[in-house]
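If you are new to this repository, start here. Below is one unmodified record pulled from the training split, so you can see the exact layout before writing a loader.
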Amino acid sequence: MAVPPAAVPCRPGGIRPPGCDTGPVAVPLTYLDHAATTALRPEAREAMLEWLGGRFGNPSGAHPVARAARRAVDEARDVVGGVLGCRPNEVVFTSGGTEADNLAVRGVHAARPGPVLCSAIEHEAVLAPVAQVGGSTVPVEPTGRIDLAALTDALAAAAGTTLVSVMAANNEIGVVQPIPDVVEAVRHAAPDATVHTDAVQAAPWLDVAALAAGVDLVAVSAHKFGGPQGVGALVVRRGTPLHAQALGGGQERELRSGTHNVAGIAGMAAALTAAARDRAATAARVSRLRDRLADGLLAAVPGAIETGVSGVAGGDRRHRLPGTVHLCLPDVESEALLFLLEADGVCASAASACASGAQQASHVLAALGVPPERATGALRLTLGWTSTDADVDAALTAVPAAVARLQGVPA
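And here is the target side for that same chain:
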Protein backbone atom coordinates (compact mmCIF):
# COMPACT_ATOMS: atom_id res chain seq x y z
CA MET A 1 0.00 0.00 0.00
CA ALA A 2 1.42 3.38 -0.95
CA VAL A 3 1.43 5.37 2.27
CA PRO A 4 3.13 8.76 2.71
CA PRO A 5 6.20 8.87 4.94
CA ALA A 6 5.52 9.51 8.60
CA ALA A 7 7.54 10.92 11.44
CA VAL A 8 8.78 8.15 13.73
CA PRO A 9 9.06 9.67 17.23
CA CYS A 10 11.99 9.21 19.58
CA ARG A 11 11.15 7.00 22.55
CA PRO A 12 13.21 7.53 25.72
CA GLY A 13 14.76 4.29 26.92
CA GLY A 14 13.95 2.40 23.76
CA ILE A 15 15.78 1.52 20.56
CA ARG A 16 15.97 4.70 18.55
CA PRO A 17 15.50 4.94 14.80
CA PRO A 18 18.30 6.59 12.79
CA GLY A 19 18.36 10.35 13.26
CA CYS A 20 16.36 10.21 16.46
CA ASP A 21 18.83 12.38 18.35
CA THR A 22 17.83 15.32 16.20
CA GLY A 23 14.08 14.65 16.25
CA PRO A 24 11.58 12.52 14.34
CA VAL A 25 12.72 10.92 11.12
CA ALA A 26 10.63 10.42 7.98
CA VAL A 27 10.39 6.82 6.77
CA PRO A 28 8.19 5.30 4.06
CA LEU A 29 5.37 3.29 5.60
CA THR A 30 4.28 -0.25 4.81
CA TYR A 31 0.79 -0.66 6.23
CA LEU A 32 0.03 -4.20 7.42
CA ASP A 33 -2.72 -3.55 9.97
CA HIS A 34 -5.85 -3.68 7.81
CA ALA A 35 -7.73 -5.74 10.41
CA ALA A 36 -7.60 -2.67 12.64
CA THR A 37 -8.78 -0.33 9.90
CA THR A 38 -8.33 -0.07 6.17
CA ALA A 39 -8.08 2.82 3.73
CA LEU A 40 -11.18 4.73 2.70
CA ARG A 41 -12.39 3.64 -0.72
CA PRO A 42 -12.77 6.40 -3.35
CA GLU A 43 -16.43 5.44 -3.80
CA ALA A 44 -17.04 6.06 -0.11
CA ARG A 45 -15.21 9.37 -0.16
CA GLU A 46 -17.26 10.58 -3.11
CA ALA A 47 -20.53 9.56 -1.47
CA MET A 48 -19.57 11.29 1.78
CA LEU A 49 -18.39 14.53 0.21
CA GLU A 50 -21.87 15.16 -1.10
CA TRP A 51 -23.10 15.32 2.51
CA LEU A 52 -20.04 17.08 3.90
CA GLY A 53 -20.33 19.93 1.44
CA GLY A 54 -23.48 21.70 0.28
CA ARG A 55 -26.03 19.06 1.26
CA PHE A 56 -27.18 18.52 4.82
CA GLY A 57 -30.32 17.78 6.78
CA ASN A 58 -31.72 15.83 9.70
CA PRO A 59 -33.47 12.73 8.33
CA SER A 60 -36.03 12.85 11.14
CA GLY A 61 -37.49 16.16 9.94
CA ALA A 62 -40.46 16.77 7.62
CA HIS A 63 -39.36 19.58 5.28
CA PRO A 64 -37.64 19.10 1.90
CA VAL A 65 -34.08 19.37 3.23
CA ALA A 66 -34.80 16.72 5.85
CA ARG A 67 -36.62 14.50 3.37
CA ALA A 68 -33.60 14.56 1.04
CA ALA A 69 -31.39 13.37 3.88
CA ARG A 70 -33.95 10.70 4.71
CA ARG A 71 -33.88 9.48 1.12
CA ALA A 72 -30.10 9.15 1.29
CA VAL A 73 -30.36 7.04 4.46
CA ASP A 74 -33.13 4.91 2.98
CA GLU A 75 -31.17 4.33 -0.23
CA ALA A 76 -28.16 3.29 1.83
CA ARG A 77 -30.37 0.96 3.85
CA ASP A 78 -31.52 -0.71 0.64
CA VAL A 79 -27.90 -1.22 -0.44
CA VAL A 80 -26.69 -2.58 2.89
CA GLY A 81 -29.66 -4.91 3.17
CA GLY A 82 -29.06 -6.21 -0.33
CA VAL A 83 -25.40 -7.02 0.31
CA LEU A 84 -26.02 -8.55 3.76
CA GLY A 85 -29.01 -10.58 2.61
CA CYS A 86 -31.81 -9.02 4.63
CA ARG A 87 -34.79 -6.75 4.18
CA PRO A 88 -33.98 -3.03 4.22
CA ASN A 89 -36.10 -2.53 7.33
CA GLU A 90 -34.00 -5.14 9.12
CA VAL A 91 -30.91 -2.89 8.94
CA VAL A 92 -30.26 -0.82 12.07
CA PHE A 93 -27.51 1.75 11.63
CA THR A 94 -25.09 2.15 14.56
CA SER A 95 -21.85 3.95 15.37
CA GLY A 96 -19.85 0.83 14.51
CA GLY A 97 -19.31 -2.83 15.31
CA THR A 98 -18.90 -2.34 19.06
CA GLU A 99 -22.27 -0.67 19.43
CA ALA A 100 -23.88 -3.25 17.15
CA ASP A 101 -22.48 -6.12 19.24
CA ASN A 102 -23.55 -4.47 22.49
CA LEU A 103 -27.03 -3.84 21.17
CA ALA A 104 -27.29 -7.48 20.12
CA VAL A 105 -26.11 -9.01 23.41
CA ARG A 106 -27.58 -6.57 25.88
CA GLY A 107 -30.70 -5.94 23.82
CA VAL A 108 -31.64 -9.62 23.57
CA HIS A 109 -30.90 -10.22 27.25
CA ALA A 110 -33.07 -7.25 28.19
CA ALA A 111 -35.92 -8.59 26.06
CA ARG A 112 -35.54 -12.21 27.20
CA PRO A 113 -33.38 -12.67 30.32
CA GLY A 114 -31.72 -16.06 30.42
CA PRO A 115 -28.40 -17.87 29.87
CA VAL A 116 -26.12 -16.37 27.22
CA LEU A 117 -23.25 -18.19 25.48
CA CYS A 118 -20.43 -17.03 23.25
CA SER A 119 -17.18 -18.48 21.93
CA ALA A 120 -14.05 -17.99 24.02
CA ILE A 121 -12.32 -15.99 21.27
CA GLU A 122 -14.91 -13.30 20.68
CA HIS A 123 -13.94 -9.64 20.41
CA GLU A 124 -14.21 -7.72 23.68
CA ALA A 125 -17.27 -5.99 22.24
CA VAL A 126 -19.04 -9.32 22.73
CA LEU A 127 -17.10 -10.79 25.66
CA ALA A 128 -17.63 -7.76 27.89
CA PRO A 129 -21.42 -7.51 27.54
CA VAL A 130 -21.75 -11.30 27.77
CA ALA A 131 -19.84 -11.18 31.05
CA GLN A 132 -21.96 -8.25 32.21
CA VAL A 133 -25.17 -10.26 31.83
CA GLY A 134 -23.65 -13.32 33.51
CA GLY A 135 -23.03 -15.35 30.37
CA SER A 136 -20.51 -18.12 29.69
CA THR A 137 -17.93 -18.93 27.03
CA VAL A 138 -17.62 -22.04 24.88
CA PRO A 139 -14.13 -23.44 24.15
CA VAL A 140 -12.55 -23.62 20.73
CA GLU A 141 -10.30 -26.20 19.08
CA PRO A 142 -6.53 -25.59 18.73
CA THR A 143 -7.25 -24.25 15.24
CA GLY A 144 -9.52 -21.59 16.71
CA ARG A 145 -12.70 -23.11 15.29
CA ILE A 146 -15.48 -23.47 17.81
CA ASP A 147 -15.83 -26.86 19.46
CA LEU A 148 -19.31 -27.84 18.26
CA ALA A 149 -19.55 -30.74 20.71
CA ALA A 150 -18.74 -28.37 23.56
CA LEU A 151 -21.37 -25.95 22.26
CA THR A 152 -23.97 -28.73 22.25
CA ASP A 153 -23.01 -29.68 25.81
CA ALA A 154 -23.18 -26.05 26.94
CA LEU A 155 -26.64 -25.64 25.43
CA ALA A 156 -27.80 -28.80 27.22
CA ALA A 157 -26.38 -27.57 30.52
CA ALA A 158 -27.80 -24.04 30.22
CA ALA A 159 -31.51 -24.71 29.92
CA GLY A 160 -33.44 -21.83 28.44
CA THR A 161 -30.45 -20.26 26.66
CA THR A 162 -31.67 -17.05 25.03
CA LEU A 163 -28.61 -15.96 23.02
CA VAL A 164 -25.62 -17.63 21.35
CA SER A 165 -22.92 -15.40 19.84
CA VAL A 166 -20.17 -16.77 17.58
CA MET A 167 -18.12 -14.41 15.41
CA ALA A 168 -17.93 -15.11 11.68
CA ALA A 169 -14.16 -14.56 11.61
CA ASN A 170 -11.69 -13.76 14.36
CA ASN A 171 -10.01 -10.38 14.50
CA GLU A 172 -6.63 -11.66 15.72
CA ILE A 173 -5.93 -14.93 13.93
CA GLY A 174 -8.45 -14.68 11.09
CA VAL A 175 -10.07 -18.07 11.65
CA VAL A 176 -13.45 -18.41 9.91
CA GLN A 177 -16.12 -20.10 11.99
CA PRO A 178 -18.61 -22.71 10.68
CA ILE A 179 -21.59 -20.45 11.24
CA PRO A 180 -24.15 -22.68 9.46
CA ASP A 181 -23.11 -25.56 11.74
CA VAL A 182 -23.43 -23.31 14.77
CA VAL A 183 -26.93 -22.29 13.69
CA GLU A 184 -27.92 -25.93 13.17
CA ALA A 185 -26.64 -26.90 16.62
CA VAL A 186 -28.49 -24.04 18.30
CA ARG A 187 -31.76 -24.65 16.45
CA HIS A 188 -31.63 -28.31 17.46
CA ALA A 189 -30.70 -27.89 21.13
CA ALA A 190 -32.25 -24.49 21.91
CA PRO A 191 -34.79 -23.66 19.21
CA ASP A 192 -35.96 -20.48 20.96
CA ALA A 193 -32.47 -19.01 21.30
CA THR A 194 -31.36 -16.02 19.24
CA VAL A 195 -28.14 -16.40 17.23
CA HIS A 196 -25.78 -13.45 16.79
CA THR A 197 -22.60 -13.20 14.76
CA ASP A 198 -19.97 -10.48 14.78
CA ALA A 199 -19.19 -10.27 11.05
CA VAL A 200 -16.96 -7.20 11.36
CA GLN A 201 -13.83 -8.98 10.09
CA ALA A 202 -15.71 -11.22 7.66
CA ALA A 203 -17.49 -8.48 5.72
CA PRO A 204 -14.52 -7.40 3.56
CA TRP A 205 -13.72 -10.96 2.48
CA LEU A 206 -16.72 -13.28 2.70
CA ASP A 207 -20.28 -13.42 1.40
CA VAL A 208 -21.96 -12.56 4.69
CA ALA A 209 -25.41 -12.99 3.16
CA ALA A 210 -24.67 -16.66 2.50
CA LEU A 211 -22.54 -17.36 5.57
CA ALA A 212 -25.05 -15.85 8.00
CA ALA A 213 -28.27 -16.73 6.21
CA GLY A 214 -29.72 -18.45 9.28
CA VAL A 215 -28.45 -15.91 11.82
CA ASP A 216 -30.83 -13.55 13.64
CA LEU A 217 -28.40 -10.69 14.38
CA VAL A 218 -25.37 -9.72 12.24
CA ALA A 219 -22.95 -6.91 13.14
CA VAL A 220 -20.70 -5.08 10.66
CA SER A 221 -18.45 -2.00 10.78
CA ALA A 222 -17.78 0.27 7.81
CA HIS A 223 -14.10 1.05 8.37
CA LYS A 224 -13.11 -2.59 7.98
CA PHE A 225 -14.19 -2.71 4.31
CA GLY A 226 -13.18 0.75 3.15
CA GLY A 227 -15.93 2.89 4.64
CA PRO A 228 -15.56 5.66 7.23
CA GLN A 229 -14.86 5.11 10.89
CA GLY A 230 -17.71 5.63 13.33
CA VAL A 231 -20.55 3.93 11.45
CA GLY A 232 -21.80 0.34 11.28
CA ALA A 233 -24.96 -1.69 11.26
CA LEU A 234 -26.79 -4.51 13.00
CA VAL A 235 -29.04 -6.77 10.96
CA VAL A 236 -32.08 -7.53 13.11
CA ARG A 237 -34.21 -10.22 11.47
CA ARG A 238 -37.93 -9.81 11.74
CA GLY A 239 -39.30 -11.22 14.99
CA THR A 240 -36.00 -11.12 16.88
CA PRO A 241 -36.57 -10.09 20.52
CA LEU A 242 -34.50 -6.96 21.10
CA HIS A 243 -34.77 -3.99 23.45
CA ALA A 244 -33.14 -0.68 22.59
CA GLN A 245 -30.10 0.36 24.61
CA ALA A 246 -30.02 3.99 23.45
CA LEU A 247 -33.31 5.79 24.11
CA GLY A 248 -34.42 9.12 22.73
CA GLY A 249 -36.08 10.13 19.48
CA GLY A 250 -37.01 6.63 18.40
CA GLN A 251 -34.97 6.42 15.21
CA GLU A 252 -34.16 3.07 13.59
CA ARG A 253 -37.52 1.49 14.43
CA GLU A 254 -36.99 2.67 18.03
CA LEU A 255 -34.04 0.28 18.34
CA ARG A 256 -31.28 2.91 18.20
CA SER A 257 -32.19 6.52 18.89
CA GLY A 258 -30.01 9.39 17.73
CA THR A 259 -29.60 11.65 14.71
CA HIS A 260 -28.34 9.72 11.70
CA ASN A 261 -24.78 10.17 10.45
CA VAL A 262 -25.92 10.77 6.89
CA ALA A 263 -22.44 11.20 5.37
CA GLY A 264 -21.12 8.15 7.19
CA ILE A 265 -24.08 5.99 6.25
CA ALA A 266 -23.81 7.01 2.59
CA GLY A 267 -20.08 6.26 2.65
CA MET A 268 -20.67 2.90 4.28
CA ALA A 269 -23.15 1.84 1.59
CA ALA A 270 -20.80 2.90 -1.20
CA ALA A 271 -17.86 1.07 0.36
CA LEU A 272 -19.88 -2.10 0.96
CA THR A 273 -21.04 -2.07 -2.67
CA ALA A 274 -17.45 -1.72 -3.90
CA ALA A 275 -16.18 -4.40 -1.52
CA ALA A 276 -18.87 -6.85 -2.63
CA ARG A 277 -18.25 -6.09 -6.30
CA ASP A 278 -14.52 -6.75 -6.01
CA ARG A 279 -14.65 -9.42 -3.30
CA ALA A 280 -13.77 -12.51 -5.32
CA ALA A 281 -10.91 -10.92 -7.24
CA THR A 282 -9.50 -9.13 -4.20
CA ALA A 283 -9.70 -12.24 -2.01
CA ALA A 284 -7.89 -14.34 -4.62
CA ARG A 285 -5.15 -11.74 -5.10
CA VAL A 286 -4.66 -11.08 -1.39
CA SER A 287 -4.68 -14.81 -0.56
CA ARG A 288 -1.64 -15.22 -2.81
CA LEU A 289 0.08 -12.31 -1.05
CA ARG A 290 -0.79 -13.80 2.34
CA ASP A 291 0.62 -17.19 1.43
CA ARG A 292 3.84 -15.65 0.13
CA LEU A 293 4.18 -13.58 3.30
CA ALA A 294 3.40 -16.42 5.70
CA ASP A 295 5.51 -19.01 3.91
CA GLY A 296 8.39 -16.59 3.55
CA LEU A 297 8.43 -15.71 7.24
CA LEU A 298 8.13 -19.35 8.33
CA ALA A 299 11.14 -20.16 6.16
CA ALA A 300 13.17 -17.14 7.26
CA VAL A 301 12.56 -17.27 11.03
CA PRO A 302 13.56 -20.61 12.59
CA GLY A 303 11.06 -21.78 15.16
CA ALA A 304 8.24 -19.51 13.95
CA ILE A 305 4.76 -21.03 14.23
CA GLU A 306 1.69 -19.98 12.29
CA THR A 307 -1.07 -19.76 14.86
CA GLY A 308 -3.73 -22.42 14.53
CA VAL A 309 -2.47 -23.58 11.15
CA SER A 310 0.92 -25.29 11.01
CA GLY A 311 4.53 -24.73 11.90
CA VAL A 312 5.71 -25.16 8.34
CA ALA A 313 5.26 -23.36 5.04
CA GLY A 314 2.26 -24.41 3.00
CA GLY A 315 -0.02 -25.09 5.99
CA ASP A 316 -3.77 -25.52 5.59
CA ARG A 317 -5.27 -22.01 5.49
CA ARG A 318 -8.69 -22.93 4.13
CA HIS A 319 -10.37 -21.63 7.26
CA ARG A 320 -8.43 -18.36 7.40
CA LEU A 321 -9.36 -14.95 6.07
CA PRO A 322 -7.40 -14.06 2.92
CA GLY A 323 -5.64 -11.13 4.56
CA THR A 324 -4.53 -12.48 7.94
CA VAL A 325 -1.10 -13.80 8.90
CA HIS A 326 -0.61 -14.54 12.61
CA LEU A 327 2.67 -15.94 13.86
CA CYS A 328 4.27 -16.71 17.21
CA LEU A 329 7.97 -15.93 16.95
CA PRO A 330 10.53 -17.46 19.32
CA ASP A 331 12.63 -15.59 21.87
CA VAL A 332 11.18 -12.14 21.17
CA GLU A 333 8.65 -9.87 22.84
CA SER A 334 5.92 -8.40 20.69
CA GLU A 335 6.29 -4.84 21.94
CA ALA A 336 10.00 -4.71 21.18
CA LEU A 337 9.43 -6.34 17.79
CA LEU A 338 6.73 -3.84 16.85
CA PHE A 339 9.02 -0.98 17.84
CA LEU A 340 11.76 -2.20 15.52
CA LEU A 341 9.28 -2.77 12.71
CA GLU A 342 7.91 0.73 13.18
CA ALA A 343 11.42 2.12 12.91
CA ASP A 344 11.66 0.33 9.55
CA GLY A 345 8.30 1.77 8.49
CA VAL A 346 6.25 -1.41 8.92
CA CYS A 347 2.91 -0.92 10.67
CA ALA A 348 1.80 -4.16 12.34
CA SER A 349 0.25 -5.35 15.60
CA ALA A 350 0.36 -8.20 18.06
CA ALA A 351 -3.36 -8.55 18.70
CA SER A 352 -6.51 -6.48 18.32
CA ALA A 353 -6.47 -2.70 18.62
CA CYS A 354 -7.33 -1.34 22.07
CA ALA A 355 -7.96 2.12 23.43
CA SER A 356 -4.53 2.53 25.04
CA GLY A 357 -2.55 1.17 22.12
CA ALA A 358 -0.59 -1.00 24.56
CA GLN A 359 0.01 -4.67 23.89
CA GLN A 360 -2.03 -6.89 26.19
CA ALA A 361 -2.12 -10.62 26.83
CA SER A 362 -4.29 -12.28 24.18
CA HIS A 363 -7.32 -14.18 25.40
CA VAL A 364 -7.54 -15.63 21.89
CA LEU A 365 -4.15 -17.30 22.07
CA ALA A 366 -4.88 -18.51 25.61
CA ALA A 367 -8.13 -20.09 24.38
CA LEU A 368 -6.18 -21.91 21.64
CA GLY A 369 -3.85 -23.33 24.27
CA VAL A 370 -0.82 -21.35 23.13
CA PRO A 371 1.72 -21.34 26.00
CA PRO A 372 2.31 -17.87 27.51
CA GLU A 373 6.00 -17.95 26.67
CA ARG A 374 5.16 -18.49 23.01
CA ALA A 375 2.33 -15.94 22.98
CA THR A 376 4.74 -13.19 24.04
CA GLY A 377 6.16 -13.27 20.51
CA ALA A 378 2.81 -12.88 18.73
CA LEU A 379 2.76 -10.90 15.49
CA ARG A 380 -0.32 -10.08 13.42
CA LEU A 381 0.21 -8.89 9.85
CA THR A 382 -3.02 -8.12 8.00
CA LEU A 383 -3.38 -7.29 4.33
CA GLY A 384 -6.22 -5.38 2.71
CA TRP A 385 -7.71 -4.22 -0.56
CA THR A 386 -4.80 -1.82 -1.18
CA SER A 387 -2.00 -4.28 -0.33
CA THR A 388 0.71 -5.00 -2.88
CA ASP A 389 3.70 -7.26 -3.49
CA ALA A 390 5.89 -4.38 -2.32
CA ASP A 391 4.24 -4.57 1.12
CA VAL A 392 5.05 -8.26 1.33
CA ASP A 393 8.62 -7.64 0.19
CA ALA A 394 9.09 -5.01 2.89
CA ALA A 395 7.78 -7.32 5.61
CA LEU A 396 9.90 -10.24 4.42
CA THR A 397 12.94 -8.01 4.80
CA ALA A 398 12.05 -6.20 8.02
CA VAL A 399 10.56 -8.97 10.19
CA PRO A 400 13.41 -11.54 10.01
CA ALA A 401 15.97 -8.77 10.54
CA ALA A 402 14.09 -7.43 13.57
CA VAL A 403 13.68 -10.90 15.06
CA ALA A 404 17.38 -11.67 14.57
CA ARG A 405 18.33 -8.40 16.22
CA LEU A 406 16.15 -9.14 19.25
CA GLN A 407 17.51 -12.66 19.49
CA GLY A 408 21.05 -11.35 19.38
CA VAL A 409 21.84 -13.22 16.17
CA PRO A 410 24.86 -11.66 14.35
CA ALA A 411 23.97 -9.94 11.09
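Two things worth knowing about this chain: Confidence is low (pLDDT under 50) at residues 5-23. Residues 309 and 359 are 23 Å apart (CA to CA).
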